[in-house]
């Protein structure tokens, strides 16, 4: 193998390594700024001042007796708990239909200076398993469907 052939191979390998390093740097360079952390109320409280202003996902259960709706229908206040700590939440979004006390929620937002978590993104946790309604009061599924049809015209 000639020196010229060997130097071309070395040059090609160096070029590939430089290009790979540059692509890795570009891909990973801004990733820290775009990460959204998932925390429980206990972890959020432990983080203290470090959690303020950062965009995080808060997950937990809607605390019983904590749901308050604003007069405008959009403002919503409630508390999220993990059984150990509780965080007050204000939401400026219409909650999903399944939103209720005791349901698991994931909120994306920021912790304000007063310790309240502000969110515009509220998601409820649920399983994807469909269960047909059980027969209640001896009524069959056909009776339930007929009653729904009568109610809806």
- Uncertain regions spanning at least 5 consecutive residues: none
Query: What would you call the structural class?
Result: alpha+beta
Strand order of the largest sheet: 2-4-5-7-6
Order of helices and strands: HHEHEEEEEEH
CATH fold field value of the largest domain: OB fold (Dihydrolipoamide Acetyltransferase, E2P)
Annotation, overall tally of beta strands? 7
The tally of domains stands at 2
Radius of gyration: 27 Å
CATH class of the largest domain reads Mainly Beta
CATH architecture of the largest domain: Beta Barrel
| Number of alpha- plus pi-helical segments | 4
Structure description:
The chain has 153 residues and is an alpha+beta fold. The chain folds into two domains: 31 residues; 89 residues, OB fold (Dihydrolipoamide Acetyltransferase, E2P), CATH 2.40.50. The chain contains four helices and seven strands; from the N terminus they run ααβαββββββα. Strand 4 and strand 5 form a beta hairpin. The mean pLDDT is 80.
Describe the structure in brief.
By secondary structure, the chain is α+β, with helices and mostly antiparallel strands.
Which structural traits does this protein have?
single chain; about 30% helix; 4 helices; about 25% strand; about 150 residues; 5-stranded mixed beta barrel
């Amino acid at each position: 193998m000639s020196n010229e052939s060997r130097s071309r191979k070395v040059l090609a390998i160096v070029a590939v390594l430089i290009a790979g390093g540059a692509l890795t740097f570009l891909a990973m360079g801004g990733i820290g700024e775009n990460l959204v952390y998932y925390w429980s109320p206990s972890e959020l409280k432990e983080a203290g001042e470090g959690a303020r202003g950062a965009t995080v996902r808060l997950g937990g259960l809607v605390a019983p007796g904590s749901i308050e709706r604003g007069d405008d229908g959009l403002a919503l206040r409630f508390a999220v708990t993990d059984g150990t700590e509780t965080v007050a939440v204000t939401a400026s979004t219409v909650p999903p239909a399944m939103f209720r006390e005791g349901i698991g929620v994931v909120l994306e937002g920021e912790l304000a200076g007063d310790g309240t978590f502000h969110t515009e993104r509220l998601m409820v946790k649920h399983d994807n398993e469909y269960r047909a309604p059980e027969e209640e009061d001896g009524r069959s599924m056909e009776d339930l469907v007929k009653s729904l049809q009568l109610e809806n015209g």
